[in-house]
Design brief:
By secondary structure, the chain is of the alpha+beta class. The protein folds into two domains: about 1-45; about 50-260, Cupredoxins -  blue copper proteins (Immunoglobulin-like). About 15% of the residues lie in helices and about 40% in strands. It contains two helices and 18 strands. It has helices at about 1-35, 75-80; strands spanning about 50-60, 70, 85, 105-110, 120-125, 130, 135-140, 145-150, 155-160, 170, 175-180, 185-190, 200-205, 210, 215-225, 225-235, 240-245, 250-260. The strands form five sheets. The protein has a five-stranded mixed sheet, with no helix packed on it. A four-stranded antiparallel sheet has the order 14-4-16-17, with no helix packed on it. β5 and β6 form a beta hairpin. The structure holds copper (II) ion. The site of copper (II) ion has 6 residues, from loops. Copper (II) ion binds near residues 129, 191, 193 and 197.
Length: about 260
Amino acid sequence: MGTIIKCLHLIAAAIFAFSTAPDIARRTMAITRASGATTKTSEAWPGVPEDGTVLGTVRVTGPQTVATRIDMAADPACLKMHPAPVMSDEVVTGPNGALKNAIVYISEGIGNHSFDPPTIPAVFEQKACTYNPRILGMRARQTLRLINSDPTTHNIHPVPQNNREWNLSQPPGSSPIEESFAREEIIPVKCNVHPWMKGYIAVFKHPYFAITNKDGMFELKNVPRGEYTIEAWHEKYGVLTQKVTLETNQAKTLEFVFKR
Ligand SMILES: [Cu+2]
């Protein structure tokens, strides 16, 4: 009897280990990647800023999508601030498919080199029941200042995979809330009061990131010579990757084209 129970225990343990192993592996991979431990240090990385530049544009091709209308009727205070219909700004394009609000950043090539975060805070504002900016780029361990400029209560709820999750209510007129994130990650942010409110806070351990403007343009400045992997991320279209080699003080132009 005892042997049978022991056997059952072993089988149960094996099933448990098997079913959780891929999940744990995935999580470990994500954490390792985000902490920078798996990125290869470039031989040429001098660790000091130089005048190298990686610049260019992000575009999207394919059939034009129609922006959906946002219904703010659930909160009269929000509705009142928008006399005209509000359209989703998930995808904002300009001439020739120029894509706004893509994040372009160095994903490999810096190795474990560390940078002190800026002393000025990154600001994420809730304004007219939307996030301003929709996509915020900031640094790990930099202060994040959250502001509610609206006459209604918001609930700021970042949903990270690799950082501490928090969920804070901010009534109208309350003081700014200060928070921070310890690790690299692009974090979706939602408001539990207003389901249409969507934003992202992109956290980097280094200063080499940019968010495309209305012309789809980006510029990474003061990049030292080296070999890098550059990624372009967009909330709807995913990630594109390119390799680039920079000599001292060189400028390289890249174009990223998402396909719909
Ligand atoms: Cu809200």
